[in-house]
Structure prediction request, 259 residues.
Amino acid sequence: MQRGKGMRFVGDSRISADKTSQVPKDYSEYPGRTEAFWPNFLLKEWLVGAVFLVGFLTATVVAPPPLEGIADPTAAGYIPLPDWYFLFLYQLLKYQFASGDYVLIGILVIPGLAFGALFLAPFLDNGPGRRPPQRPIAVSMMLLALIATIWLTYESAAAVDWEARKEMNKPIPPGETVEIDTSHPGYAHYEANCLACHGESMEGTAAGPTLIGIEYSAEEIADIAVNGTGNMPPGLFTGSDEELEELVDFILSVNEGGE
Ligand code: HEC
Prediction:
């Protein structure tokens, strides 16, 4: 049989002429004005979107954004700061007309107007022209929003001491890990009195440093266990002298084993 015999073709040989639903409408009466949404318009949009997506991915790989480190629930002096893409909204709330008594303007009215306008854009900006000079209002509002966002972000970022934040936000290091001898007589005392802050295998937690690799004598460790040190409160160990000795012995044994 001859190829294609008995079939009628439209422009695309995969679409039979009977299947009119997939044939783009003829817009030749409106030259330059419009085009079929599917597939012409969407394809263009997706292509542009793909270019931007790849661009963003490349940018994030080349210059990692200054995002925050791991949250530390014990850091009392920590001042929260939004991530960079929300800094402009954060900056807005610093102005008198958008804070204090007028904070509703800053958190609801202004962002509401901006996003509302974006939602309503198809209805507000419904002229036939698609070139920027033919749409002065929409284009100038978009430019204004863009400039405002960039300027607010810049203002906000300029007021932050990024070096200090970087220092504060250092990721908590995973730390050394060692085998813990849970059959050691001192382990039970460690588990009962110290584990909550110093970690299951002495690796440390947000509430206390690692006890691996410390260079204290038995007397010093015993003293710290009873009297505390720095941010570690006193009176944490309440057992007998003999139990204290077992505990210290256990901590020392792990440290010897870990070296
Ligand atoms: C409430 C949480 C908490 C508990 C429970 C706790 N510690 Fe601590 N510990 C800390 C903190 C916080 C530090 C750091 C103190 C500082 O340097 O400011 C610390 C420091 C230490 C240090 C010194 C570490 C170093 O590198 O200088 C030793 C040793 C120590 N703890 C032993 C113990 C022992 C033994 C126990 C169990 C009796 C215990 N800790 C229970 C919070 C705790």
The chain has a mean pLDDT of 82.
